[in-house]
Amino acid sequence: MPYHIFTFNSTHHVLKAEKLLLGKGIKHEIIPTPKDISSDCGMAIRINPVVSDPNDIEGVLMKNQIDFRIFVQSFNQ
Amino acid sequence: MKTVDAQGKMCPMPLIMTKKALSEISENETLEILIDNETSVKNVSRFLEEHNMGVAIEKQGNVFRLRVNKTGIIPEETRAEDFCETPMPVSSDYVIAVQKNKLGQGSDELGELLIKGFINTLPEIDNKPETLVFLNSGIFLALKGSPVIDSLSRLENEGTKILVCGTCLDYYQKKGELGVGIVSNMYDILNVLSHAAKVLYP
């Protein structure tokens, strides 16, 4: 099952998204945005879909009007 | 007698200069090579000895004076740089000392975000640290339920040692909550830091 990587328009949105996920107890990881996704030195949120449901996260983010993009990445890099 | 001055030159320069000079002198002529670091002395000696030329090494102050009699020919196709043996070990030999639960100076919330990104990236890089040391508020990263606990466990499983400051666990009253690594005292920690080839302080 591939990782889902959520990227945002700004670091502030990453922080806001992280707070929301922490508040909901949704397991996630903060990672630097992988180079193949963006050359910006931004941060992103990685979800293991076995542990957390990406749909839950999408719901939470949309409800709070946080713009995001989703990338799917394989485990073995 | 021809002299090659390779002082201040790093590998492979002394080797290349030696090879070139040997090709320019005649059989049984003596070549003198001046080198100022031990690594290059070893490399050049090995290079000459493997081509059946004995080397006399004399140390004068900081300078090594190598003398060799040309007794044979070093084939043109011999790559001098193959005899380079840099003192840099290939295996991981660096230590990361995490002194707080944030990365860098400035905004606390940004620092907390950055340290998570930093530690979550470690399992994915080629050159993994030999040891991670957690001190002061850095210990919070090594507690059960920490946002980076999975990455730390992965690193530990793959051979990185994780040392957590016992005094710090005690101070913050988190002794029962350690999620990864071993509780260490300042002797162990200083021993690791002082023997590391380099230490990163995120």
Provide an overview of this structure.
The complex is a heterodimer of chains A (77) and B (202). Chain A is of the alpha+beta class and 77 residues long. Chain A has a single domain, classed as VC0802-like. Chain A is 31% helix and 27% strand. Chain A has a four-stranded antiparallel sheet. The two termini of chain A are 13 Å apart. Chain B is an alpha/beta fold and 202 residues long. Chain B folds into two domains: 82 residues, Translation Initiation Factor IF3 (2-Layer Sandwich); 107 residues, Hypothetical Protein Ychn, Chain: A. In chain B, a hairpin with a 2-residue loop joins strand 3 and strand 4. The radius of gyration of chain B is 25 Å and the shape is elongated. Chain B starts with a strand and ends with a strand. The model of chain B has no long low-confidence stretch (mean pLDDT 91). The chains are: A alpha+beta (77), B alpha/beta (202). Chains A and B meet through helix 1 and strand 2 of A and helix 3 of B.
A few lines on this structure:
Chain A has 77 residues and is an alpha+beta fold. Helix content of chain A is 31%, strand content 27%. Chain A has a single domain (3-73), classed as VC0802-like, CATH 3.30.2130.
Brief descriptors of the model:
heterodimer, A: 77 residues, alpha+beta, VC0802-like, 4-stranded antiparallel beta sheet, 4 strands, globular, B: 202 residues, alpha/beta, Translation Initiation Factor IF3, Hypothetical Protein Ychn, Chain: A, 2 domains, 5-stranded parallel beta sheet, 4-stranded mixed beta sheet, 6 helices, elongated
Fold topology:
The complex is a heterodimer of chains A (77) and B (202).
Chain A: E1 3-8, H1 11-24, E2 29-32, E3 43-47, H2 54-63, E4 68-73
Antiparallel strand pairs in A: 1-3, 1-4, 2-3
Chain B: E1 2-5, H1 13-24, E2 30-35, H2 38-50, E3 55-60, E4 63-69, E5 94-98, H3 108-121, E6 131-134, H4 149-157, E7 161-165, H5 166-171, E8 182-184, H6 186-195, E9 198-200
Parallel strand pairs in B: 1-2, 5-6, 5-9, 6-7, 7-8
Antiparallel strand pairs in B: 2-4, 3-4
